[in-house]
Amino acid sequence: MKDVADKIADVVHAGPAGGPEEGVPGKPAIASPPLVEPVHPVEPLPPKADQSGPETVSPTGQPTGAEQARMAQSGAYLTTAQGVRLPDTDHSLKAGPRGPVLLQDHHLREKLMHFDHERIPERVVHARGAAAHGVFQSYGTAQGVSKAAFLAQDVETPVFVRFSTVLGSRGSADTVRDTRGFATKFYTEEGVFDLVGNNIPVFFIQDAIKFPDIIHAGKPHPDREIPQAQSAHDTFWDFVSLHTEATHHTLWNMSDRGIPRSYRMMEGFGVHTFRLVNAEGATTLVKFHWKPKLGVHSLVWEEAQIIAGVDPDFHRRDLFDAIESGAFPQWELGIQTFPDTADQMFEGIDLLDPTKIVPEELAPVKPVGLLTLNANPSNFFAEAEQVAFHTGHLVPGIDATDDPLLAGRNFSYLDTQFTRLGGPNFPQLPINRTHAPVNDMLRDGMHQTAVHRGVAPYKPNSLDGGCPFFAGADTGAFIEVPVDVPPGRKVREAPASFGDHFSQSRMFWLSMTPVEREHIIAAYTFELGKCYEQAVKERTLAVLANIDPELCAQVAAGLGLPVPAATEPLADTRPSPALSQVGRTWPLDGRVIGIVTDGAVDMTGVREVREAVLDAGMVPLVVAPAGGVLAADGDPVTVQRTFATARSVEFDALVFAGLPAAGADAHGARDAKAGAPAPTVGDPRVLALLTEAYRHGKALAGWGGAEALFEAAGISAEEPGVIVTDDARGLPQLLELLSAHRVWERFPAAM
């Protein structure tokens, strides 16, 4: 695989000369368009280099050998759905230019009919998502515990991964506080395996029968259909304050984990405990983990709110742009393994309880393979929208356990696909097709695209020669583990071990650094402050009192309410350092650096910084008063953002080349961000850019007069994360700051 820096440099320097955005990830098409509409017929343009589609297999899993282009539309001329060429698509067939539209207009009928039906029902949950293609390469380290073929040494398996939020509609914003989905479809040689996980390792509920309740509580209020894509409202907090098994998940959501920096910097978890089976038939219980190579990082709350307004597509744009620039996101798949004992417990933790984790100090996560996302979808609807995941899509070597939440998901996922995708043949959609041969005896139904042969879709038969035949364990059959079922009465109960709702919540709280605790306090205070009902706020404070008295007291102070006493003894638990996001350093692949200049000061230094950013595997974006090209001397420098279009939230760090002069549009009538009266130093939008970035803990650097800009913003060169030099040589210090994600010293904690 090509080095990340080389890939980014290729993108920045490649392609025909286009416009001012040339070379920046996000270019819409493979070639820049001409100024006038083309009139000479040509075949459809190929996709961009970063785009791919589903593998070309048949509806029954047979490799076709066809190029992916064969799955796309072709031909230089506009046609009907039946391939009949059309001379016009701008005018209905009428009885004269001003006459009535004629019923015989078959093109009008077909075009409107398809348009009227081109939307399918969005997912009830996880409607807002983005996805990408990739490959999973196994290390072979799981072979001792699982016979799954895709986990064998050096096996490469195509994958499709979809990230999502839970509560919002398809049109909601990316950066809301919410749980994120992390669903991976492995196209293995033994069939499809779906690992349908989240970025939080625990769930709100222990039994799937409660799933409609938590989602109904979290969704917008049914009378007004507000608020959208968030939990800061009465129905959510009413439910979770009464249903205290939700406490652990809620605490994770109120932490920085609820607002990830990007999908590329987000952990993934299988949530449930699964059962692995090896070649000898021995079983092991397991929890799955995705560990991002870039580390686990988050937004700060104000940053998330600003982004929701200025770029609601922030997370999907970040994912797609990183892949296009060659900064391919990577995660290691890891497993925590536990003895498959009769009680399915480990160190006193019930492994069937999806509201509990096993701390990594008790069971280390063992890496078993590397996931790399290396291609964007070529059609979002056909791939990201029509992909259908299902927790019951398992392969030999991986089996389910008696987790009651998992059991319900195994029922629910099929039902939702029938509704969304129009019938039982959704596995035949190209993105869902298995890469293993299919002979399922399932016939007909809506959207059947396979052309089945034979006359005997039943067993036993002789008319089709007995085919298909049963497989045995020696020929790769999926055989459920023959687990003993304990005798007992039919009951609607939970085991006593499911009754502990606070010990792991307290462990999570104690594992946070002071700044992370401050963010949790702020999140609870904000969310509860959005509720109307005092009883809901007071009840939630009573829950927090059972986690930690300081957490409860600080939130109560923010709400102006008395501090309740705990109703249960505080759990005696030790912190788990693996739960904190702060204190380590990480790679910088794909980070975005803003270089702010007006083109009048040291363009040689601007070029040097830009090249150094590229060499470090990051993306440089030049910000100037106006678009176009800066070419004071030497090679021209393309402007990617202007003072009007830039906002601090899209950058991981800012570098200021001198004191940029004010732009010609720096007045309130043209751009409200410019404000009034005019500032004494520079452009007010540059000051806003600087102060926002400082407030959000981002690294800042400058030279050639930039110190005056910092002083105008009230920022001293002596403060943490601020680098002021005489020339453009401060980048190594900047990279060191960036590797920690933020300048955490700027967030003093009260506690």
Automatic annotation (TrEMBL):
GO terms for biological process: hydrogen peroxide catabolic process; response to oxidative stress. It catalyses: 2 H2O2 = O2 + 2 H2O. Its EC number is 1.11.1.6. Residues 1-71 are annotated as: Disordered. The keyword Heme applies. Keywords: Heme, Hydrogen peroxide, Iron, Metal-binding, Oxidoreductase, Peroxidase. InterPro entries: Catalase (IPR018028), Catalase_AS (IPR024708), Catalase_clade2 (IPR024712), Catalase_clade2_helical (IPR043156), Catalase_core (IPR011614), Catalase_haem_BS (IPR002226), Catalase_immune_responsive (IPR010582), Catalase_large_C (IPR041399). Heme binds at R123, R162, F211, R409, Y413, R420. Residues 53-65 have a biased composition (Polar residues). Its cofactor is heme. One of its GO terms (cellular component) is cytosol. Residues 1-10 have a biased composition (Basic and acidic residues). The active site is at H126, N198. One of its GO terms (molecular function) is catalase activity. There is a cross-link at H390-Y413 (3'-histidyl-3-tyrosine (His-Tyr)). Residues 22-39 have a biased composition (Low complexity). Residues 79-467 form the Catalase core domain. Belongs to the catalase family. HPII subfamily. Decomposes hydrogen peroxide into water and oxygen; serves to protect cells from the toxic effects of hydrogen peroxide. PANTHER family: CATALASE, CATALASE-B. This is Catalase. The lineage of its organism: Bacteria, Bacillati, Actinomycetota, Actinomycetes, Kitasatosporales.
